[in-house]
Amino acid sequence: MTTILSRKLALAAGLVCLATPVLSSCGFDYATDRPNVIANGGYVQSGNGMRVLATRIVADTSHRGVFIATLALNPTANPVVAAKTAPTLVGLTTRSDSPFQMTAAPFTPIAVTDTGAVNMADSSAGGIKVTGNFGAGAMIPVTLKFSDGEEVSVQTPVVTQCHEFASVAPQASTAAGHHKSSASSEPTGSASASVSDSATAEPSAEPTAPYDCSFPSLPAIGE
After folding, report:
1. Kind and range of the H or E element at 21?
2. Which residues lie across from 68 on neighbouring strands?
3. Backbone angles phi, psi at 188, to 5 degrees
4. Residue 88 and residue 192: Cα distance in Å, rounded?
5. Shortest CA distance to 143 belongs to which of 197, 201, 64?
6. What single string gives the DSSP state of each residue in 46-77?
7. How many beta carbons lie within 10 A of that of residue 109, not counting itself?
8. What confidence tens digit (pLDDT) does each residue in 30-49 have?
9. Half-sphere exposure of 108 toward its Cβ, with a 13 Å CA cutoff?
10. What is the 8-class DSSP label of residue 7?
């Protein structure tokens, strides 16, 4: 009986030893301490304290789209005060090692509001029109330029303008002739110097047919 009890105690001690590394790691790297990036949008924190969240290029067809993101202040800052001096987004281009070309149309510099953030997917703000040799499913290393000279790069997925992205549109001043239209007029919004400087030659690829947003139909069970 004593031998059996000793074996059981030894086995229990061994199991505790094996579990110790796993249990001891529970106090680190909490999920709540990590960025929550919904639906695989790009995320980066810049040196000036700005947060660039949920970046995407929303495309209604290949070779063109609207860049959107949420720009936010450091959550420890007082947004009412900090928003007045926060840097604005003034330029958008691709990183030098990008496998894709992307040209941003001129746009009005984008600033955070006194709420501490600005969501470019919201119609009150609007996104940035872009063109290039990309299509849905691509992942593009995009560089954002701020008015204080800071540049940050973030991997940005290209998604179709369907479902939750159906209402995404560029800034009101540059929206004419973009989505669901064959017009080719130049954008009329104001442009900062850094936007113009960052632009590259316009890609020659033409948009294809609009993406199909319908869900695929499945045969009935048993067919």
Report:
1. helix 2-24
2. 56
3. -110, 0
4. 11
5. 197
6. -TTS-EEEEEEEEEEETTEEEEEEEEE--TTS
7. 16
8. 554 444 444 457 777 766 67
9. 15
10. H
Q: Both tokens of residue 190? A: 């104001």
Asked whether 68 and 121 are in contact (CB, 8 A), the reply is yes
pLDDT in tens, 84-143: 999 999 999 999 999 999 999 999 999 999 999 999 999 999 999 999 999 999 999 999
The model's pTM is 0.69
Q: What's the Rg (C-alpha) of the chain?
A: 24
Taking a C-beta distance cutoff of 8 angstroms, is the pair 91, 107 a contact? Answer: no
Beta pairing class for 128-132 and 102-104: antiparallel
Question: Is residue 160 within 8 Å of residue 137, measured between CB atoms?
Answer: no
pLDDT digits (tens, 9 = 90+) for 14-31: 554 444 444 444 555 555
CA distance 161 to 175: 15
Which residue is listed with tokens 């061994």? 14
- Name the nearest CA neighbour of 110 among 130, 92, 132: 92
CA nearest neighbour of 67 among 158, 139, 199: 158
Q: In a 3-state reduction of DSSP, which class is residue 56?
A: strand
Give the pairing of strands 151-160 and 51-61.
Answer: parallel
Provide the 3-class DSSP secondary structure of residue 94. Answer: strand
Between CA 214 and CA 211 the distance in angstroms is 9
Q: Give the per-residue pLDDT at 214.
A: 84
